[in-house]
Amino acid sequence: MKHNIITATAITVFALSGIIFWETGFAWLIFIAIALAYLALTAYGSFKIQANYFLTSINRGKRKSIALTFDDGPDPETTPMILDVLKEKDIKATFFVIGKKAEKHPELIRRIDEEGHTIANHSYSHHYLIAFFSTEKLKKDLVLCTSTIYEILGKTPKFFRPPFGVTNPRYARVLRDLKLDSVGWSVRSMDTKAKSKYEIINRVISKLKAKDIVLLHDNRKVTADSMEDLIEHCLQKGIKIEPLSKLIQKEPYE
């Protein structure tokens, strides 16, 4: 992983700098600069899932189409609204669900599945400090989400999206152990901050191109309101919308 390469490089540069500059009086300034640069790169890698810094995520597809993905559901108010539009337009999407929400709304999980969409793991708790969980605690959280989905559908999801798109070395170990594929995105709708559906539509359409994975949230009414127009804009531009599994050519379940 890039993190290991950069860590090894930083250590090497640090050691060489000590040898070369120790007697100049500038060694500590150089050490501080190296440390700050290393911390900045690590922070960037943590928050930029597309950087594949700690682990390799699937951020784009392999076909000349796009996929719609939804995080943070299911939501009893807005998820059905989105499903209604997807059904009307005959579009299949992927829902990265939060385990504790799936547990509360199993009927929505079943509906998503019955209508031909994919259910994927987005952690059980979606805790705001999940990036700081120990390896053991993180693994238990992801396993609990998977088991919740399995209890409802009898299917074991293979796709996982880290909450907030944040990664670290613990995620790399846990995903490897659980044989989960990390899925990122290439187009972020910013629907969590949008004040109108037009902000979402304009942002997505202006950036959209073949092989893109679009990040949306099915717990936002503004997102639900935008779906019909967003899909129509895609179709009018000749952009084909396919299931994520078809776009990235991977099976969604074990």
Architecture overview:
There is one protein chain. This protein is an alpha/beta fold. The chain folds into 2 domains: 2-47, no CATH class; 67-248, Glycoside hydrolase/deacetylase (TIM Barrel, Alpha-Beta Barrel). It is 51% helix and 10% strand. The chain has 10 helices and 7 strands. It has helices at residues 2-21, 27-47, 78-89, 99-104, 106-114, 135-153, 169-178, 197-207, 221-236, 244-248, and strands at 67-73, 94-97, 118-121, 159-160, 181-182, 187-188, 213-217. The strands form 2 sheets. It has a 5-stranded parallel β-sheet. Strands 4-5 form a two-stranded parallel sheet. β1 (67-73), α3 (78-89) and β2 (94-97) form a beta-alpha-beta unit. α3 (78-89) runs parallel beside α9. The model has no long low-confidence stretch (mean pLDDT 93). This is Polysaccharide deacetylase family protein. Keywords: Hydrolase, Membrane, Metal-binding, Transmembrane, Transmembrane helix. InterPro entries: Glyco_hydro/deAcase_b/a-brl, NODB_dom, Polysacc_deacetylase_ArnD.
